[in-house]
């Protein structure tokens, strides 16, 4: 069960954030509205939401997930791989200190984005991407193993972050798209295959009794519901324009 969630409001500079997509510039008003609905969905799941103010110096800082890896007993402050995002951790660490006594850090030359970290029960998967390098992954693996978690490093082929293509929704079930549909590291889990045309919907989040799903992906939503989960749909079009999904917008612990 998650008790807490941290989110950060998109600032006016959000429209200048990083992207690899060709979906156009986000509409700020719509992004703010979608963010409000996202917070309402989280509250419906029964978590306490800590809402951080926008920081205009960091256009991508609404994607708080990338700044940390959180477990019940400790936090790991990441070292984001994009130079324009690296300073986001400076504001996040004091926030985490309110919740955690034990805080580790990923140190340069290691880089690591939280979006590359997937937890499945007591096993963490660490993606090597354009943002998370081998040194960062190695540091996190050591921290996790010292805390009695299992950790596996996964090389990404195409996906932006690990959780862009694979996510855990509980009860032994993963959502798998693209290169993760048949991937040795994940073949021991039950899978809901996300079809190519719905690939974006591989990024759903399980929060307590619900799976929050992005609006507009009916096949995946139905497959999740048929597997016995209750869903809440949230529109994320303005976050998708900057490569962001549901998981990126919060830290859940
Ligand atoms: C970036 O390029 O860093 C942001 N525009 C998107 C970050 C998405 N975060 C995530 O998948 N955890």
Automatic annotation (TrEMBL):
The record's Pfam families line, in alphabetical order, gives: DDAH_eukar
Name a single GO biological process.
positive regulation of nitric oxide biosynthetic process
Which keywords describe this protein according to UniProt? Hydrolase
Whether Hydrolase counts among this entry's keywords is yes
- Top-level lineage group: Bacteria
From which residue to which does any coiled coil extend? none
The yes or no answer to whether the keyword Metal-binding is present is no
A GO molecular function assigned to this protein is:
dimethylargininase activity
Question: Which residues does UniProt mark as catalytic?
Answer: 161, 248
Recorded hits in SUPFAM superfamilies, A to Z, give:
Pentein
Entries under InterPro entries matching the protein: DDAH-like
Give binding positions for substrate. 18, 60, 65-66, 85, 131, 242
Q: Report the Gene3D superfamilies cross-referenced here.
A: L-arginine/glycine Amidinotransferase, Chain A
The record's similarity note reads: Belongs to the DDAH family.
Give the PANTHER family listed for this entry: DIMETHYLARGININASE, DIMETHYLARGININE DIMETHYLAMINOHYDROLASE
- What protein does this entry describe? Arginine deiminase family protein
From which organism does this entry originate?
Bacillus salipaludis
């Amino acid at each position: 069960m998650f008790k807490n969630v941290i989110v950060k409001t998109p600032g006016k500079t959000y429209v200048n954030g990083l992207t690899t997509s060709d979906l156009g510039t986000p509409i700020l008003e719509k992004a703010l509205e979608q963010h409000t609905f996202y917070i309402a969905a989280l509250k419906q799941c029964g978590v306490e939401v800590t809402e951080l103010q926008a920081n205009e110096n960091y256009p991508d800082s609404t994607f708080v997930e990338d700044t940390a890896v959180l477990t019940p007993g400790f936090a790991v402050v990441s070292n984001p791989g994009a130079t324009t995002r690296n300073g986001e951790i400076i504001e996040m660490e004091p926030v985490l200190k309110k919740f955690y006594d034990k805080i580790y850090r990923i140190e340069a030359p290691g880089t690591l984005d939280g979006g590359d970290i997937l937890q499945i029960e007591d096993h963490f998967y660490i993606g090597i991407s354009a943002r998370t390098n081998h040194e960062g992954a190695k540091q996190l693996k050591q921290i996790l193993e010292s805390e009695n978690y299992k950790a596996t490093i996964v090389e990404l082929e195409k996906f932006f972050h690990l959780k862009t293509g694979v996510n855990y929704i509980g009860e032994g079930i993963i959502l798998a798209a693209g290169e993760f549909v048949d991937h040795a590291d994940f073949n021991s889990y039950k899978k809901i295959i996300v079809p190519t045309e719905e690939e974006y919907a591989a990024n759903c989040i399980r929060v307590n009794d619900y799976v929050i799903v992005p609006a507009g992906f009916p096949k995946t939503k139905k497959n999740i519901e048929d597997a016995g989960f209750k869903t809440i749909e949230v529109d994320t079009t303005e976050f998708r324009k900057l490569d962001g999904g549901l998981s990126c917008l919060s830290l859940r612990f």
